[in-house]
Design a protein that fits this description.
alpha+beta; Jelly Rolls; Arc Repressor Mutant, subunit A; 2 domains; 11 strands; 25% strand
Length: 210
């Protein structure tokens, strides 16, 4: 089966090249911190990024995972609600919000930011539905299917580890490992290593995710 990669953001890259700056971030490096002033937005050029929120009791919640073409740091308030860290070596477009404000009314810019906001809201709603209504196996299947779709390939390299997956899905790392084993036993996916897998039965994966 041929997969279609998530919508490209060539207009986003073109716009950010015009008004922003490309910056490299090493694997594990913080891009912005939770509760920092939200004075920048960030467009991912290459690599993968994780957003996380630490609660007062030390528990960690993962907001989402982001790939090239995604925009992060779009806040309605003055501070970032999540921190963002590079899961791999990344190149990030960094744009001052003041620069965007000065271009308010530009049809191309407004459309680009609206589309980025719409996609973020849609993914947040899907995440909430998954956390509240799906079984453990369905959650892991949904996650693997989503990553495969976003990278546009049935052969996938995961930038995140099992603990990241567990925190994102609201499961324990042991449960995630059991569900991966179950999916492999059903020959729906095939893991060559902990972070390399191939979708072998896409219709079956779709049925579980649905």
């Amino acid at each position: 089966m041929t997969l279609t990669r998530s919508p490209s953001s060539a207009p986003v890259a073109s716009l950010m090249d015009r008004i922003g700056l490309r910056m490299p971030f090493a694997k594990g490096e913080e891009i912005f911190g939770q509760a920092d002033a939200a004075d920048m937005i960030h467009g991912i050029v290459s690599g993968a990024v994780r957003t996380t929120r630490l609660h007062s009791d030390g528990r960690r919640q993962i907001g989402d995972f982001y790939y090239p073409g995604d925009i992060i740091g779009l806040e309605t308030g003055g501070f970032y609600r999540f921190s963002a860290e590079a899961l791999s070596d990344c190149v990030i477009h960094v744009v001052k919000r003041a620069s965007l404000n000065s271009l308010s009314g530009d049809a191309g810019l407004d459309g680009t930011l609206w589309e980025a906001t719409r996609r973020e809201l849609e993914r947040t709603q899907e995440h909430l539905l998954m956390l509240g209504r799906k079984s453990a196996c369905e959650k892991v299947a949904s996650f693997l299917m989503d990553v495969a779709r976003r990278v546009g390939s049935e052969d996938v390299s995961l930038p995140m580890g099992r603990q990241d997956m567990a925190d994102y899905l609201g499961l324990t790392i042991e449960t995630v490992s059991r569900m991966v084993t179950q999916l492999q036993g059903s020959r729906i996916v095939e893991f060559a290593s902990a972070r390399q897998f191939r979708v072998t039965r896409w219709p079956a994966l779709e049925r579980l995710a649905a």
